[in-house]
Amino acid sequence: MRVMKWSMIALAVSAGTSQLAFASAQDESKGFLEDSTAGVKLRNLYFSRDYRNNDSGQSRNEEWGQGFIGTFESGFTQGTVGVGVDAIGLLGIKLDTGRGRAGMGLFPINDDGRAADDYSEAHGAVKLRISNTTLKYGGQFTAVPVFATDDSRLLPEVAEGFLLTSKEIEGLELNAGHFTRLNAQAQTYKDSIGGRDADTGLKNPGLTDANFVGGTYAFTDNLSTSLYYSKVEDYWRKYYANVNWALPIADNQGLVFDFNIYDTKSDGDRARAFDGDKLDNRAFSLSAAYNIGAHTFTVAYQKVSGDGDYAYGIDGGGTVYLANSVARSDFNAEDEKSWQARYDLNFAEWGVPGLSFMTRYIRGTDANVDGTTNGKEWERDIDIKYVLQEGPAKDLSFRVRQATYRSSDGVYYGSPSLDELRLIVEYPLSIL
């Protein structure tokens, strides 16, 4: 389940007018140390699921932990070719859970069924820059629609490989990547992302080779588009496209339309671990958001057609840039159609900057799953967040996320009825 979705409005606001080449970032480099930044994000997360009418006997899972996400990014050395290094350090500490309550994906699970008391990992990367083009190799976070690491638990996924990012023309960003490893959010060993074979039940090897190329282009300040291609060895190949259009109406009113589509096809037997059959499908979503002052109203429609569910995960737990991929479900089963209605409120307009509220309802029908072609599911989410705007604890945030999920015929991992609660406190601490 991804959480680093591209904001439709943010895309519309940040899109630049396409022009010829602009100032070189490398020419403006101040040096390796002078441009360095370092920080630690402290994340305290309580996550629980209350299962309703669960025949398996499991009635509740809950975990509580403290995470430390440390990052260091050096500047680039001066000259035609700039050289730099980046580093990531992750530490998760268990605050509370038990053998009968573990399993929320916050901690590694030991052989005795108990969650580990702590876990940690470290990654490094080297980078080169010429003009406005950067090549980076090593451990890193990614946010590309066909290869996106997930950050929905205590600690994020980390991918290892090459990433090329080029911004030589204003309004145009090109990306190309080659990745060979992906670490899960609650594991510290390499290649900890994998799946299980639908026939044997044996765990498949993790990511061995993923390649992608594509980019985003802003035609105008209000219109941008993206196109990407990826191939994951022994799993699948994907095409992805996006169109985002912002339509200003007045000073405090506007419409934003966002269209996303994936075309996925099996390219190896391991894809069956994610779906149980060969994949050859298309998944698309179309959303429209109307903003007036403090209020934003959004409606979205999503559909999957062809053979199999929309599959992802081995190519990053965040690789699902679809409107109805939400807190609990992705509404991505074979042949599934889903609608969403969402409301956002920004209290800054009412004199309380930093406070925001969101609620949404999504309903899916016609899912082809577990022998039925009419599987149904629905989800209701509530999200309240407050970020301190000033003072010694500036940027400290408090967040409450609640999800209610119901389905027929085990549409989502055989969990027909559950309630989720996440309590999140985050504090980004800048060191450099």
Automatic annotation (TrEMBL):
Give this protein's Gene Ontology molecular function annotations. Answer: porin activity
Q: Where is the signal peptide?
A: 1-23
Choose one Gene Ontology CC annotation of this protein and give it.
Answer: membrane
> What keywords are assigned to this protein?
Signal, Transport
- Fetch the Gene3D superfamilies from UniProt: Porin (2.40.160.10)
Pfam families xref list: OprD
Q: Does the keyword Glycoprotein apply?
A: no
Extract the InterPro entries matched here: OM_porin_bac, Porin_dom_sf
What protein family is recorded?
Answer: Belongs to the outer membrane porin (Opr) (TC 1.B.25) family.
Q: What name does the UniProt record give this protein?
A: OprD family porin
